[in-house]
Amino acid sequence: MTKRSEPITKNRGRNPGERGHWMLEGALIMMVVTVVFVGILDIGLMLFRISFLGERVRSGARYAAVHSYNPTAIQNYVVYNNPTAPTGATTGLFGLTRAMVSVNRYDVGTPSDRIEISISNYPLAFFSPYIARTFTSRNFRASVAVESLGSTD
User: Fold this and answer.
1) How far apart are alpha carbons 72 and 114 in whole angstroms?
2) Using the 8-state DSSP alphabet, how is residue 148 labeled?
3) What is the DSSP track for 8-71?
4) Measured in whole angstroms, how far is the alpha carbon of residue 126 from the centre of its chain?
5) What Cα–Cα distance (Å) separates residue 121 from each residue in 12, 29, 95?
6) Which residue, 21, 34, 104, 142, could crosslink 57 as a Cys pair with Cβ 3.0–4.6 Å?
7) 15-60 pLDDT, tens per residue?
8) Are 119 and 59 within 8 A, CB to CB?
């Protein structure tokens, strides 16, 4: 009598309780990969927004240095990249509002005449687990000497 061979689809050295373990391992690895990926996106978004705020303050300071002193126009330039606000607009670039931008002029009429632009209370939102909340950014400030010499531009 010859012994009958077993079918090829048999468990091949696995214990019966190990069926589906690859799905569990894959799910655990994907969870870790997803958390790391979202964390990298959060860090990138934070760096982008910090760079954006610094650029907006410097851009507003350059505008203020070469144009007549008009705090509303300077705020609009920082928020909307235009000295006049679009009709009906309440927020500007990336959620920036005029309430977050302050414009001050110091030592008017003296050689140290300067304008200071600052952005404060800008919200930075994170989506990563464990820090999924909104933080308030630090203040961004730029000060520049007045060079307009009375231009009416």
Assistant:
1) 17
2) -
3) TTS-TT--GGGTTHHHHHHHHHHHHHHHHHHHHHHHHHHHHHHHHHHHHHHHHHHHHHHS---H
4) 9
5) 63, 38, 12
6) 142
7) 666 667 888 889 999 999 998 898 899 889 989 999 999 999 999 9
8) no
